[in-house]
Design goal:
This protein has 17 helices and 20 strands. With about 575 residues, it is of the alpha+beta class. The protein is globular and about 65 Å long.
Length: about 575
């Protein structure tokens, strides 16, 4: 290790961006960032760095991701100028009904327990390495093996997540052995280490990604599933391979925005939200004003109404062109403008303050649309990690890996913990939905985004934590209001306006803005000033004195940015 283990622990809070560098990395974790910079210094490209970073991330942040989760990315290939989309979500095995290993009455699994799913993480890394990798696989695994061997120091953030979802992750004996090896969670400042995970990482390094796809780990996974009553076979592990897809592209003034296309919902959501706010005149509004928040709240609400069209286009027709149509956005904006209140509604808000709010369309889906859980909501792990990297050749990747969509809920196989899939099966307004048809890929809200100007990348952004609604806001701060990358990341975020005309926003709204929103009949609820449910963005921007870059760091979690100056 280049420094003591405790020196890698970072806490949420304001952080300085990394500026004027020739290659840049920003991630949710100091260890991951260092591992990726190591790969760049060794001659690897952005794809190599992302693979190494993801392998390390699942070792040191098992509370946010794991090696059985899922992978998506947008990759800008400098030599061709093409943007590629990788979709490697887990898949449901053909011919089998959804398998839920515990009954719905099990308290920690709540009313809608996750379903078991075939992992997509390692197939995704294999596909990325085969298409764009330049260094050998074992080199990319070296830091993951090293950190699995040494263990990592538990932070306050990590410990808090374990306490919050304790009943879920310790439901099975395997979970208790993994997370509580001495009968309790490792305390803050102590070392978290798994000998089983080290053995798996060595196997992945020595035998390649197939170790977890068709090799020894996969065999152990299938054996455990069969014993639990899930009759999968090794053939199910490879029947729905990763896909390289065309990303969703739309124009926003002088910018070309690339987002993940269907079956991922983020691109459709972002296109509608940004199109509506454009035609509402957001760019001409005062940042932080009531008009700004009103416009964004309505744009986000319209975005959420369209993700039902995010389907696997091998199974359904997908109206891509119709949803990104600027005339359609203008029509939506026209209806919103015409429906603004004609009178001051402050008294209405005062008189109805004690009336319970109407449940909004996100209530069913828990953390996908709510700022924080209550005692009656499920305490199921819901986490992911975002990686952004641009190398000195101009290859640029925005990448996400996550614990959602990972294997058997609550189970641990050879040191790899899993959460299962939170997907519904046929729900139109679900942020995560799956169709049980051969080779079908499910809907999710992974948020990789690249912004090009005159065919040259100028910005990338992505985040865990409610990315569906936070991405349009960060893009608006940067592209419409002209804030710096760091300012755009730090600016207040909110959830879409609910059925109760409620805006839930971080607690940095001025009294004047609050009063003006009240006049519009909009209720306001606040979270903490920097609420980690609002995500942890990894953002890189091309500086005006190109080709140097700025990497921003989100204060809401534990991110770290670094760069190479020459």
């Amino acid at each position: 290790m280049s420094k003591a283990l405790h020196e890698y622990v970072t806490n949420p809070g304001p952080k300085a961006p990394t500026t004027n560098v020739k290659a840049a990395v920003t991630t949710d974790n100091a260890i991951v960032t260092e591992a990726m910079v190591n790969i760049l210094r060794a001659g690897g490209n952005a794809a190599d760095a992302a693979i190494a970073g993801a392998l390390v991330q699942a070792v040191v942040e098992p509370y946010m991701t794991n090696h059985a989760g899922l992978v998506t990315c947008l990759f800008y290939e400098a030599k061709t100028g093409k943007v590629h989309q990788l979709d490697s979500l887990g898949a449901f095995p053909s011919g089998l009904a959804p398998f839920k290993p515990v009954p719905p009455s099990a308290g920690s699994y709540a009313t809608f327990p996750p379903s078991a799913i075939i992992p997509g993480f390692m197939p995704g890394l294999k596909a990325l390495h085969e298409k764009f990798g330049t260094l050998d696989w074992s080199t990319l695994c070296a830091d993951a093996v090293k950190w699995a061997d040494s263990g990592h120091v538990v932070s306050t953030f990590e410990y808090g997540v374990y306490i919050w979802c304790e009943k879920f992750i310790t439901y099975f004996p395997e979970g208790r052995d993994y997370y509580q090896p001495n009968g309790y969670f490792p305390n803050v400042g102590e070392i978290f280490r798994s000998e089983d995970l080290l053995r798996t990482m060595r196997g992945v390094s020595e035998q390649g990604p197939d170790y977890m796809i068709t090799g020894p780990w996969a065999e152990a996974f299938v054996e455990k599933a069969n014993k639990m009553g899930w009759p999968i076979s090794l053939s199910h592990m490879i029947e729905t391979p990763p896909r390289w897809l065309e990303p969703l592209r739309f124009d926003h003034f002088e910018n070309e925005i690339y987002c993940l296309g269907p079956p991922q919902a983020q691109g459709l959501f972002t296109a509608v939200a940004m199109g509506v706010t454009k035609h509402l005149g957001l760019r001409d509004m005062q940042v932080g004003s009531a008009d700004h928040l009103w416009a964004m709240a309505n744009g986000l609400r319209q975005g959420a109404r369209h993700w039902e069209y995010a389907q696997d286009d091998g199974i359904y027709g997908v109206p891509r062109d119709e949803i990104v149509d600027t005339e359609y956005h203008a029509h939506l904006a026209k209806m919103i403008l015409k429906s603004r209140p004609k009178v001051d509604l402050s008294e209405h808000i005062r008189l109805t303050a004690s009336v319970p709010p109407v449940s909004d369309i996100f209530a069913f889906f828990g953390s996908a649309g709510k700022p924080r859980a209550t005692d009656t909501e499920p305490k199921q792990p819901s986490g992911s990690c975002e990686i952004a990297c641009v190398d000195s050749e101009g290859n640029w990747i925005q990448f996400m890996d996550t614990l959602q969509g990972s294997g058997i809920p609550g189970m641990v196989v050879d040191g790899v913990p899993m959460v299962g899939s939170h997907a519904t099966f046929g729900a139109l307004q679900s942020v995560m939905d799956a169709t049980l048809a051969p080779t079908a890929k499910g809907r999710n809200i992974m948020g990789n985004c690249l912004v090009l100007r005159d065919d040259v990348p100028v910005l990338s952004a992505g985040s865990p934590g409610n990315i569906h609604c936070t991405l349009p806001q960060v893009l608006a701060y940067a592209l419409d209001f002209g804030l710096s990358p760091q300012q755009a990341v730090e600016a207040p975020r909110m959830f879409p306006m609910s059925e109760s005309r409620m805006i839930t926003i971080e607690d940095r709204v001025s009294d004047g803005t609050l009063a003006d929103l009240t006049k519009m009949g909009i209720r306001v609820s606040v979270t903490s000033q920097f609420d980690y449910h609002m995500g942890a963005f990894s953002v890189i921007a091309r500086d005006s004195n190109e080709p140097s870059y700025t990497a921003a760091v989100d204060p809401r979690r534990c991110g770290v940015a670094q760069g190479i100056t020459r």
